Amino acid sequence: MKEIIGKLHELEFSPNEVRVYVALTELGEALASKIAKKANLPRTTVISILNNFAERGFVSAHRYRGASYYWVESPKTVRDIFANKVLIAEQLDSLLGGLYRSEAHFPSAEVYDSRKSVKNFIEKTLVGLKKNSVIRTIDAPQMGNYSKVLSDEYQRVLIGLKRKRGVATRTLVPYGTLRAISPRKMREQDIQVRELPERLAFTASLWLINDMAVLFSGKPPFAVAVRHDLIVESLSNLFEHFWRTAARAQAPRSGSREGA
């Protein structure tokens, strides 16, 4: 009995509610006066609690010859009621996601920690871009992050998707790694590449896409997408600084004719 009472308290039943619920569970069906006697509570208090239980679906009531009889629903009903509340809470979480602190400018973040989820995220992001968008990235071609998540064939599919939507890419890579980029990938897309200053190491990938900053790595596969105006603006300013002051400014190895 002590364990039952403890579990009901965990479900936020008040002490009096616990006494009434346990009493009626043992009785099965009874008048309020009998339940009050067993629970050792005033009849008016018990009636108020029973009516509340009826509204919540824990008990049922019917009148017979002018008297109200109460009976407790199956314990499985309690389980189902709370399970349904969890489901509603999960649905509410999804619905409120876009509203939560929407005017307070708090950052939101999403984590993708499997090859499949990262792959789906990249595809969804590219499909959702406006035509002729520009993506800014800091990448590490020597690390092979993309090859750890995406097959060569799928990378070509994504490049084709970028080309179809007119998406241009501006990329910074660590000093001395420009030669590690596949010439084919450079030819097949609208991309400009410059090298970061010497001795500035970078082993993950950073993407700046509209209002989103994404940190990506293939070892282990993960992507963290952060949405926040000030964070993205700050990182974008850093990117632009390095873009303008790249140690070895040069024309990108790509189909683009723009000089670095």
Q: Overview of this structure, please?
A:
- This protein is 44% helix and 21% strand.
- The protein is an alpha+beta fold and 260 residues long.
- It has two domains: 2-78, Arc Repressor Mutant, subunit A, CATH 1.10.10.10; 106-244, Endonuclease Chain A (Endonuclease, Chain A), CATH 3.30.870.10.
- The chain has helices spanning 2-10, 15-27, 32-39, 43-56, 75-96, 115-128, 152-164, 183-188, 229-244; strands spanning 29-31, 59-64, 67-72, 108-112, 134-138, 168-173, 191-195, 205-209, 212-218, 221-227.
CATH superfamily of the largest domain: Endonuclease Chain A
Main sheet record? 7 strands, mixed
Order of helices and strands: HHEHHEEHEHEHEHEEEEH
CATH level 3 topology of the largest domain: Endonuclease, Chain A
Total count of helical runs of at least 4 residues: 9
Gist of the model:
With 260 residues, the chain is an alpha+beta fold. It has helices spanning 2-10, 15-27, 32-39, 43-56, 75-96, 115-128, 152-164, 183-188, 229-244; strands at 29-31, 59-64, 67-72, 108-112, 134-138, 168-173, 191-195, 205-209, 212-218, 221-227. Strands 4-10-9-8-5-6-7 form a seven-stranded mixed beta sheet. Strands 1-3-2 form a three-stranded antiparallel beta sheet.
Which tags fit this structure?
Endonuclease, Chain A, 9 helices, Arc Repressor Mutant, subunit A, alpha+beta, disordered C terminus, 7-stranded mixed β-sheet
Strands, helices and their partners?
Blueprint: H1 2-10, H2 15-27, E1 29-31, H3 32-39, H4 43-56, E2 59-64, E3 67-72, H5 75-96, E4 108-112, H6 115-128, E5 134-138, H7 152-164, E6 168-173, H8 183-188, E7 191-195, E8 205-209, E9 212-218, E10 221-227, H9 229-244
Parallel strand pairs: 5-6, 6-7
Antiparallel strand pairs: 1-3, 2-3, 4-10, 5-8, 8-9, 9-10
Helix pairs in contact: 2-3, 3-4
